[in-house]
Amino acid sequence: MANIKIKAKFKDGIVKVKALAKHEMTTYNQAEKKTGDRNNANFITHISATVNGKIVYEASTSQFLSKDPIFKFKFRGGEKGDTISMTYVDNKGNSKTDTAKIK
Amino acid sequence: MKRRNFLRLGALATAIAIIPSQLSAIDFRETKPSSWAAHNVDDAIKALYGDISVIESGITITTPKLASNGGAVPVNISSSIDAKSVALFQDANPEATVAVFTIQEGAIVDYDIKIKMGKSGTITAIIEGRDGKFYAGKRTLDVALGGCDG
Fold this sequence. Notes:
The complex is a heterodimer.
Chain A: E1 4-11, E2 14-21, H1 28-35, E3 44-51, E4 54-61, E5 70-76, E6 83-90, E7 95-101
Antiparallel strand pairs in A: 1-2, 2-5, 3-4, 3-6, 6-7
Chain B: H1 2-18, H2 28-31, H3 41-49, E1 54-55, E2 59-62, E3 66-67, E4 73-79, E5 83-90, E6 97-102, E7 109-115, E8 121-129, E9 134-143
Parallel strand pairs in B: 1-9, 3-9
Antiparallel strand pairs in B: 2-4, 4-7, 5-6, 5-8, 8-9
């Protein structure tokens, strides 16, 4: 299953994107409760989206995003048929990338 | 020690020069680590942007008035300010900083994101404008069921 589900729609010069990143998003406190070690916390620390090699969305994030966080954003400069690529990195260093076509 | 710092600075500058401009991603967790450990909103803002005075206008934060599940509180930040970065804080969790968005030039500030809130609290958004000014918006909401175990 895809790690990041992306839906991108082009309308009137603006691309609307809805993305769902599959991730546990464990906070430090949750990790301590479940495993007894705060260092087991795992959450997305940085997520970005690029279209045609240009960054259109970028966020540094903390453990306080919900589990499987949803990101919605809009940007100019995309076209129908372009490929949007999203990458996230979590604090364990795992990186996942997924792509979708702008419809 | 000073020389070592200087060398590191030089290496960093070279690295920045080599990276093409379209890859100018900024990871605020690396550049401003202290702001992610701050326990209240004022400290976090200070750690991220320094001592700033904010103008409390221009930002709309939309959330439900009462969030039934603190594990996933939908938050929308929108603004027409020409922004350089947008930072989101709240005072219901052990650490204050939630997310920092880097805004590309000409981008639209209209972001939806789902966050965790341990209890009822206030969400604060700070926008760093391209004009060098800082803008703030606040939104207080009730959380019926805390979502991140404190």
